[in-house]
Every structure is written in structure tokens, then in C-alpha cells.
Amino acid sequence: MKPTLFDSHINLHGEQYDEDREEVLLRAREAGVSRFISICDKLENFPTIRKLTDQHNDMWCSVGVHPHYAKDYEVLTSQELIELANDEKVCGIGETGLDLHYGYSDIQLQEKAFRKHIIAARETQLPLIIHSREADDLMGDILEEEMQKGRFQPLMHCYTSGANLARCATALDAYFSVSGILSFKKAEDVRAVALEMPLDRVILETDCPYLAPTPYRGRRNEPAYLTEVCKAFANLRGLSFEDVAKITTENCLRLFGRVK
Hints:
The protein is an alpha/beta fold.
């Protein structure tokens, strides 16, 4: 039997899959991916994402607003997120966080939205799915400050930030998700940090349709390629594919308590 894998971050609701969404899922299942989390990027997409999860008993979803869209959700409240998260298929809050690379939304608006998501994660006790790009110092400061107000469970999604933020997040009992970037030829810094991640806090993701791993780089990513992410992490840490599949799936099930 193939080891079962858990893709903790997919964007399968996107138009990139409108022609072959079911075939993409079939390929993933044939590759051994047995569970999926469909990530919410903005609330206007949540009904579509939620409908998709209803059609598949091996799929769950999150609710949240990506930092790119913070400018469009200035009136967002934590209570809105909390109410949507009452749905049994919702297993996480986010994707939320800070992104200083593109600057699509003002950083003050991003921070405001991020803190609202933290409140929702604290209230619901669901994992907080965090996007952090080129904002290490501010992200670390906010996480430490907010943790003092009451515990919540951080998940550092598609971690490509530095070692200092990784140490800060580890001290706060965060989980880290590893993506296809780990397999990129020039991703030495990412691999260096991944070498130090606590094994009981690592999970896998594709972030499809983005970040297709080697040898599929440049193509549309899909959940079946999670096998390559698993191989890359196994090679990095000197573990077998089977051990990484088992460890990361167990970690995911512990983190996302609503997933069966």
C-alpha cells in the first residue's frame, strides 16, 4: 500500500482547474494523497470553496483573507470569521499574515486584518494559517505580543522566511509547512531552515497551482505532486519517504483537529 499523504494547502477553487478539477483530484488520490485542505483567500470566495469541500468527503477548508486583499476588507470583524468557522468543515483560520514583497495592501491594513484573524483563531481554537513574506521582524513581534494575550496555534505556511523568525515561531509551538520550494536548486536558505524544524511540527503542502516542485517546476502545480515535496524533505532529513509521509500526516491530523 502507498503511504498516505495530506496536502495541507491547496487552491483548487481557482479558474486554473475549471477544465479538469475532478481529474486533478483523482490523480492526487492515485498518488496517495488522502486528505486536502482548500484554503480561503478572500471571503467572497468562501461559498465556492465550501461547496467544493461538500462535494468531497476527503476535503476540508479554511476561512480568511490573504494579506494581499486586506485593503478590500477594512470592515472585516473577528466575529464574522468566528461565525463562519462554526461550520464543521472549516478546520483553520486564514490564510492571513503580512506580505511586504508585493505591497498590494498597506502594511497597517495587513496588520489590522492579521490581528483580527488571531482573535478568531484564539476564540475558535482553530489553527492560524500564516503567510509571511519579507516581514520577519514585524511578524515575530506580533506573534509574541498576541500570544501574551492568550494562546493560539500558529502554522507558518510555505515557510521561506529566516532562521530568527523560525526560532521565534518554534518557541511559540508553531507548526511549519514545507512546499515545493524546498526542491528548487537555489533554495539553500530554505533547506537550511528546514533542517532545523522540529519533526513533530512539520507538515507538507503544494500551495497549488503555485510552486510546482522539481521536476515539474514551471508547470501548473497540483496535489499529486506532493509526493515530490515529501521526497525532497525525506532526502534533506535523511529519512525514508514512508517515514516522512507518516510523520507529516500524523502532525496534520493533530494540528487540524476537525479533519478525520
